[in-house]
């Protein structure tokens, strides 16, 4: 997969070259290019924003500068990659594990994170005539800009790419992965067997795999009920198994 990010803060995206993603880049599973939006301005002050039509606080990013930058990235791309544009915004659709999986199936993603009060909407409207556009929010809170959301989305997508995770099964059993539809993951434990007086739950040391699976499933249900009751309420009846009715 190829990922392009256009931003006025290129340094903000450098963590994407660390850790798991850095290794994927080194192995050639992921190509990452960060582009400075200001390189696509034409005035002496390298202006990227202006006052909002209709008034109000803050500034709006200029559609002409964004469109020029996007055109340059598209022109340098393989047309067969059919890139999709991702515009992070708190006014977008929720970025979920299902959306991450959909994006992981594409060959190229171009991210356009905004600062200030966002980008002139005509940039999105115009781009959508040429490519798929996703306006996406990472949660119900407001960030100072979309760059942190890009870090989140790229990490969630890249770990789903073939060969990026050491153990592909760890993506399956994750909260919101395909192993436990609609449930949160059970808590995890490792050595020592007693930590500050706290033992490991007996079920996990029993060696009985059916027992362990039942215990983890019950803990998933308990955690989901405590932290995310709306997820439990939304489960279709067939997502429950016979043992669940005792919980
Ligand atoms: Cl994607 N951007 C910004 N600026 N704030 C957000 C967000 C995105 N998602 C949640 N809050």
TrEMBL record:
Q: Where does the tRNA methyltransferase TRMD/TRM10-type domain start and stop, copy by copy?
A: 1-232
Please list every transmembrane segment annotated in the UniProt record, as residue ranges: none
Q: Which GO terms describe its molecular function?
A: tRNA (guanine(37)-N1)-methyltransferase activity
Q: Which domain of life is it from?
A: Bacteria
Shown portion of the complete protein runs from: 1 to 247 of 294
Q: Which organism is it from?
A: Nakamurella aerolata
**Protein's name according to its UniProt entry:** tRNA (guanine-N(1)-)-methyltransferase
Record keywords, A-Z? Cytoplasm, Methyltransferase, S-adenosyl-L-methionine, Transferase, tRNA processing
Q: How does it assemble?
A: Homodimer.
């Amino acid at each position: 997969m190829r990922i392009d990010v256009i931003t006025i803060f290129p340094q903000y995206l450098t963590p994407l070259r660390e850790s798991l993603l850095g290794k994927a880049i080194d192995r050639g599973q992921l190509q990452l290019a960060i582009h400075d939006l200001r390189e696509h301005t034409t005035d002496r002050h390298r202006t990227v924003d202006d006052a909002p039509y209709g008034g109000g606080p803050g500034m709006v990013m200029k559609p002409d500068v964004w469109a020029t930058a996007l055109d340059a990235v598209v022109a340098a791309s393989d047309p067969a990659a059919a890139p999709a544009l991702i515009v992070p915004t708190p006014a977008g659709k929720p970025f979920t594990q299902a959306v991450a999986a959909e994006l992981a199936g594409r060959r190229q993603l171009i991210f356009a994170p905004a600062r200030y009060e966002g980008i002139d909407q005509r940039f999105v409207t115009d781009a959508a005539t040429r490519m798929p556009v996703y306006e996406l929010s990472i949660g119900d809170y407001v960030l100072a800009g979309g760059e942190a959301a890009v870090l989140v989305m790229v990490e969630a997508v890249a770990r789903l790419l073939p060969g990026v995770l050491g153990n592909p099964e760890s993506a399956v059993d994750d909260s919101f992965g395909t192993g436990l539809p609609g449930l949160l993951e059970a808590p995890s434990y490792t050595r020592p067997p007693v930590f500050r007086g706290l033992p490991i739950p007996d079920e996990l040391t029993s060696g009985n795999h059916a027992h362990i699976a039942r215990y983890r499933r019950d803990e998933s249900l308990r955690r989901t009920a405590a932290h995310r009751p709306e997820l439990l309420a939304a489960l279709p009846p067939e997502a429950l198994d016979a043992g669940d009715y005792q919980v």
